[in-house]
Specification:
CATH superfamily of the largest domain: Pleckstrin-homology domain (PH domain)/Phosphotyrosine-binding domain (PTB)
Largest sheet: 4 strands, antiparallel
Structural class: alpha+beta
Strand content: 15-25%
Order of helices and strands: HHHHEEEEEEEHH
CATH architecture of the largest domain: Roll
Number of helices: 6
Radius of gyration: 31 Å
Helix content: 40-55%
Shape: elongated
Length: 214
């Protein structure tokens, strides 16, 4: 009479072991898929196709095992897949700095601190530095300022109390970009040297006598 419980214990342990293996396999597959999912997430069409595939796959895991081989292990995983397909938010098209840099033809993307356009609030900006122009864009890649590199007269880093200022002058214009935090000086120095690297050095002015002899 004591053999029945003893036989049931290994059966239960086998189910637990199979369930553990299934969950570990699903977790490992999810880890491998994360980079691909992040790439797919950027494309609305690919993301919608993935959600449809996930929904049909989840429904198949719920229905087919129960109707064909009476397996209860795949049903919870299938239900989770189906619910995930429904609850996953739709893809929002967005750009990343590298994409915007390629679009503008910029060579370098830098932290531009914060900038206050006319009649607007102070906003964080990024510098997209190209060989001919420097673009200051906000976090949504809206254009705030364009500075022609050939017209820049100076780019100077200055310390004002607890912050650093990058002052850029070109023709009759000027703009100030503010940096705060423990890395403020480091960031402003990088921006200063990078902008100075794309400034077109003015040609030397020769004395009138030397110019005439040349």
């Amino acid at each position: 009479m004591s053999s029945a419980p003893a036989a049931a214990v290994p059966h239960d342990e086998g189910i637990v072991a199979r369930l553990r293996s299934l969950l570990l396999g699903a977790l490992f597959a999810l880890v491998l898929l994360i980079p691909r999912l992040l790439h797919i997430r950027r494309n609305p069409q690919s993301w919608m196709a993935f959600r449809i595939f996930l929904g049909f796959g989840g429904a198949a895991f719920v229905v087919l095992p129960l109707s064909l081989w009476k397996s209860w292990l795949a049903a919870p995983a299938g239900l989770a897949m189906f619910l995930a397909a429904i609850l996953l938010p739709p893809a929002k098209p967005h750009l990343i700095p590298d994409d915007k840099a390629r679009e503008l033809g910029a060579l370098v993307v830098l932290n531009g601190g914060t900038f206050q356009p006319r009649n607007a609030a102070l906003t964080p900006v990024q510098f997209f530095v190209g060989p001919e122009e420097i673009w200051a864009l906000d976090s949504r890649f809206h254009l705030l300022l364009v500075i022609p590199a050939s017209e820049i007269a100076s780019a100077t880093a200055l310390q004002k109390k607890d912050r650093w200022i990058l002052r850029v002058r070109w023709l009759d214009n000027s703009a100030e970009f503010s940096y705060t935090g423990i890395f403020a000086e480091h960031l402003v120095r990088i921006a200063e040297s990078t902008i100075a690297g794309v400034m077109h050095s003015p040609l030397p002015v020769l004395p009138r006598s030397r110019a005439a002899s040349a």
